[in-house]
Design goal:
The protein is of the alpha+beta class. It has helices spanning 2-47, 125-132, 136-154, 158-164, 169-184, 202-300, 303-316, 326-364; strands at 48-51, 55-61, 64-70, 73-76, 82-88, 92-102, 108-120, 188-195. The strands form three sheets. A three-stranded antiparallel sheet has the order 3-2-5, with helices on one face. A three-stranded antiparallel sheet has the order 6-7-8, with helices on one face. Strands 1-4 form a two-stranded antiparallel ribbon. It is rod-shaped and about 235 Å long.
């Protein structure tokens, strides 16, 4: 009986041990399952990622670029195997700093900052990344800016780089960058380039400032000389204008005097013609009067009229004569009376000429 009790106790101990083992196994399995679930959740969390706005996502699996481009939002990738990168497809500004370059004269300059505004087209993302990687701007912007600036500086002097041609550097770099990317990396657009003034070594700057001060003095002297020349030219022109004005006034006065003399001459000519016409008229009238008088005289020179005039003359000159020769005086008077017709006949041609002249003058009028 004592041995039976001992065997029953042993059996009960084995059952308890088996139950404990079963519980331990269940707990272990549960732990494994819990670990697997946690690992799955962790892996799932590692596979979920976000692409920001204004970007697109590119993916690599074991280092190889996948032909997959994603838009902004949540996306899933293969945990541990895939990695992603965000590529900005809107305007961005790359700043290239501390760019050394040497001038054609051997002076070392440093451009502290060059800003390049550029944009990557979304349609060209895969091509650009497959050829130049996600850091494509290092090749086509950062390194290219160094190269182009050094090329520019090596061909120009300090004066040209710092002052004379500095305003052209922005456009020069923009055109050079755009030409290169158009040929080798189409899809990158260069919008603008901004270049700051280069820093110059202090000793060179002091010499340069001294030279510029002397140049400023020279330019000031040249400007003053130009002003003096301009003032003298202005005074000369004013003198010429004044002399021309006086000459014009003198010419006008002379022309006025000439016109007055011409007017007076014309008036004198008119007066002379008037006087000549008047005198001619008087002469014609006198000629006509003389012709008429001669004609009347011719008509009056008749023997009877002459005898009448003789008698009247004797009557008007009554005188008393004394002496013994009175008969001879009357004889002379009778002889004169007898000679009057012959005299009138001799004067007839002259009277006829006078009448012809009077008639011609009357016809002319």
């Amino acid at each position: 009986r004592g041995g039976g009790q001992k065997s029953e106790s042993a059996t009960q101990g084995d059952d308890v041990t088996a139950a404990a083992v079963s519980m331990d196994m269940a707990a272990a399995i549960a732990g494994v399952l819990l670990a697997l679930v946690a690992l799955g959740v962790a892996l799932a969390a590692m596979g979920v990622h976000k692409i920001d706005e204004m970007h697109v996502g590119v993916y690599f699996r074991n280092g190889a670029l996948l032909n997959r481009i994603t838009r902004p939002g949540l996306h899933v990738k293969m945990p541990l195997l895939d990695r992603h990168a965000q590529m900005q497809v809107t305007l961005q500004t790359d700043s290239v700093r501390n760019i050394p370059c040497g001038t054609s004269g051997g002076v070392m300059l440093t451009f502290e900052r060059v800003e390049v505004v550029n944009r990557l087209n979304a349609s060209a993302v895969y091509s650009i990344v497959s050829q130049y990687g996600v850091d494509y701007d290092k090749v086509w912007i950062f390194d290219k800016i160094h190269h182009e600036l050094n090329q520019f500086c090596s061909k120009h002097t300090l004066q040209e780089i710092y002052i004379e041609k500095f305003h052209t550097v922005d456009d020069m770099l923009k055109d050079a960058l755009q030409e290169s990317v158009d040929q080798y990396a189409p899809g990158i657009q260069i919008i603008a380039v901004r270049v700051t003034k280069p820093s110059v070594p202090r000793a060179v700057m002091q010499n340069y400032e001294a030279m510029e001060a002397e140049k400023a003095k020279l330019q000031l002297a040249q400007q003053e000389q130009r002003v003096a020349e301009k003032r003298a030219e202005t005074e000369r022109k004013q003198a010429v204008i004044q002399a021309q004005k006086q000459a014009d006034v003198s010419r006008i006065d002379m022309q006025k005097l000439i016109d007055e003399r011409q007017a007076e001459k014309e008036m004198a000519r008119i007066e002379d013609e008037k006087l000549l016409h008047h005198r001619k008229t008087l002469a014609d009238a006198a000629t006509y009067e003389a012709a008429q008088r001669a004609k009347s005289h011719e008509l009056l020179l008749s023997p009877q009229y002459l005898a009448l005039q003789q008698i009247n003359a004797i009557a008007n000159n009554t005188k008393v004569y004394f002496g013994d020769r009175l008969g001879s005086m009357f004889s002379m008077l009778e002889l004169a009376r007898d000679a009057m017709p012959a005299l009138a006949k001799q004067q007839a041609p002259a009277a006829a000429a006078a009448r012809a002249a009077a008639t011609a003058a009357a016809n002319e009028q």
